[in-house]
Amino acid sequence: MIAIPSDIRRRNDRHRDMAHPCVRRWIACGMLGSGLLAMLCAGMAWVANLHINLTPSIPRRLYQATPQSPSRHDVVLACLPQPFAALASERGYVAAGACPGHLMPVGKVVYGVPGDTVEITTRGIRVNGRLLPQSRALSQDDQHRKLPHVPEGTIVLDSNHWWLDAPHARSLGSRYVGPFPRQAILTTLRPLWLVAGDTRR
Q1: Full set of structural domains in the chain with CATH
Q2: pTM, to two decimals
Q3: Using an 8 Å Cβ cutoff, are 24 and 18 in contact?
């Protein structure tokens, strides 16, 4: 799976949040060989629901999609909710896919679950009093266009909403779009192993 090194980038091969499932599985296997071997590997990866993340937003790992319900600190794949999805599509922040706005899903960390208190401040986001790393919303993207973001204040997450983001300054998460509805979370990702060079756990 190819993913953008920064969520807020123009659409190109190096700057995509999530590549098409076929592409990401082919690339994961392409390093192991070519021809028939690559085809067999791609098929096994597809059946096993494997995804490789190469972005800095979440740990660079090989992941496996699972049917388990998400919990705090889990990594998930989710669709950006509207109306932000339409803006992300128009500006090319995320590659094309089957989510609303014709976007691919994005990889995020579950920071807030139903019942949690989320505080939006000028310093960043606090969940139940804990300041999240690199969670301050930026005012502009790389092209100096204004970025909408959740206004300062306090939110108590209801039973259908979750706070999803990532420990990266340019992550397109809840700091910009607000809480994600539960139905926007597609799958929980189980980490298998780290990609070389990433020391995060």
Answers
A1: 65-194 (2.10.109.10)
A2: 0.72
A3: yes
